[in-house]
Amino acid sequence: MSIEWYVVLSALLFATGAMGILIRRSPVVILLCLELMLNAGNLALVAFSRMVGNQQGQVFALVVMVIAACEVVVGLGLIVAIFRRRLPLDIDELRELRG
Amino acid sequence: MEAVLFFIAAIGALGGAIGVIALRNPFYGVLALIAHLFSLAVLFLLLTAAFVAAAQVVVYAGAVMVLYVFVVAYVGGGTESAWEPIPGQRFLAPLLGIALFVELAVAVLSSSLLALGHDGPHVNPGFGDPAAIGYLLLEKFLIPFEASSMLLMLAAVGAIVLAARRDPGEGAARGSSEHSSEAPAERSEDPLAAPAHAGGAPS
Prior knowledge:
The complex is a heterodimer. Helix content of chain A is about 75%, strand content about 0%. Chain A is mainly α. Chain B is built from nine helices and no strands. The relative contact order of chain B is 0.06. In chain B, about 70% of the residues lie in helices and about 0% in strands. The interface between A and B is large, with 73 and 95 residues.
């Protein structure tokens, strides 16, 4: 199986995640779409690692998974804090910082 | 055989991704993301990244998604409003997504990447197994490994600080005497204190 198929699939998944971030309004779903984009980057990293024949790209993919876990933890903590304060869970209504 | 597996996993990954952005209920979105992650693990196995695939299934589809399920169950689904701050956002966003995909695909496929060889070089059977990745992590990439573990710990502490139950209204509603003395000190350092909304006790 040719490697560029994996890269094109990774681009497709990344574009899908970006589209989800543009469309959806719930912060939980936006975090899920961020996961999609990070995983698309992971797929590209592993595909390039296989293409070059070097395992270091897989270590990069593992570090990206760690970053994703941190992002999930902090993001979900923020969502829980927003929910506790009875603010609307809608990114278009949480616009006080925009002025 | 490999092509068949690739296309099955690719369709699964793409279907999961579309499910995440299309399903109304966030709980179903989380389930679609789990399907997506499993399909990606199959793709990683096809790319001879056994340890990354195992970590994907165990850590990602297991632990992280359970966290998502708990939070979705806690905050509830909720319906998204139909109000659009930018006119035509529902039509512009897919166009921008398609444009991004076309741009990425052109950028990748028109580069010199195709000259690197189609199926990749031949690799020995130990490529990407836990022993090899472990050697890399603990010898060559020891500093990034420790830095990422430090980052994980900081994220856990930050999440506890963010989501800790210490609303001013909550302390008043509980009415316990040992909390009343330390409540003002905690309130002053609350980064997310919202005085206008702190009237009611949270659930």
